[in-house]
Amino acid sequence: MAYSMFPFLGPTLGPICGNFLVANAGRRWVDTLCTLYFAPMFILGVFILPETYAPYILRRRTARLSAETGNVIISKLDMGVPRKTLASTLTTEIVRPMLMSVLEPISTVMAIYAAIIYRILYLISAAFPIIFIDDRGWSQGLSGLAYVGIMIGQIIAVPVYVVLEMKYRKKIATVASTPEMRLEPAMYGAVMIPVSLFWFAWTSYTSIPWIVGLIGTIFFGLGNVLVFIALMNYLIDTYSLYAATASACNAIFRALFGCAFPLFTTYMYQNLGAQWASSIPAFLSLVFVPQPFVFLKIGPGLRARSKFANEAKALLAKMQEAREKVEEKTKDGKLTKLGPEVLTTCRNSDNSES
């Protein structure tokens, strides 16, 4: 939950702090502050964060046990699998996300929707100075406080999502879980986003108190987080072992939309005015309102025809089957040193040499 919320808090908390910093210390101090923060975070991430990818952990453990015992120990996942090369690694890390973004309707539609709602945040970042500095005459530092409404909505999303998650867990305790069950938060958020954007757009007249428009942005922040987390959970449950690839596909679209949106925002507001320019992202998000409701119906059929989802499901079943076999051997007093992971082939290296 926190992992998904903080990428949204960045574009809102950043201008609140950054605008006051620029107004009082200059633009260079923004870059300096970012460097002072990111440098230690990078170092901590490299040396402290553990590896979490199960196949890699298993492969590393079998290599260590092979060195300790003198036996060649191979995991079932690696049996019959060619050794990894640079070409195969590039295929997995770069080509597969691109293929998924083109060939997988689930991944493509979810990625486009997530990219649009996420990048509307950056469109607003370019729009707020026009609305609050140029039109309303706020100072640069004070204009950063216009993001407080969105930030409040994002913070409210945490307890709201916790309640919805508890409801989901109670439901799967009695019925079989499906990825489509993850879409309920997106249904609420999908409706909130266009409503809040239209609210903000048509209350941005200088004759209307500024607080009215900012109240509307609270629902935008809330809906944004609910939709994004729900879509990511849906992708993870759908593609399981290929979830990282689906996330990479999602990131590709977010990056592309992120590059494009700020390029035309200023011209759009200059030519259309604050009201109609702010309505464009509202209309754009309105197109995607039916998306979670539609996927609730057609999602199972799309998953059944998905090459990547079926491959991941089969591989996961294979891992589970092998895990159960090892657990049975462990109960019999065998392989106790190896733990619950999958270790299936042990061949004495001395015998093989002879």
TrEMBL record:
Q: Name one GO cellular component term.
A: plasma membrane
Identification of the protein by name:
Major facilitator superfamily domain general substrate transporter
Q: Which spans are transmembrane here?
A: 37-58, 106-132, 144-164, 185-202, 208-232, 239-264, 276-296
One Pfam family hit: MFS_1
Which keywords, in A-to-Z order, does the entry hold?
Answer: Cell membrane, Coiled coil, Membrane, Transmembrane, Transmembrane helix, Transport
Could you confirm whether the keyword Manganese appears in this record? no
Gene3D superfamilies annotated for this entry?
A: MFS general substrate transporter like domains
Q: Which GO terms describe its molecular function?
A: transmembrane transporter activity
Q: Where in the cell is it found?
A: Cell membrane
Keyword Translocase present in the record's keywords: the answer is no
Q: Which domain of life is it from?
A: Eukaryota
Segments forming a coiled coil:
305-332
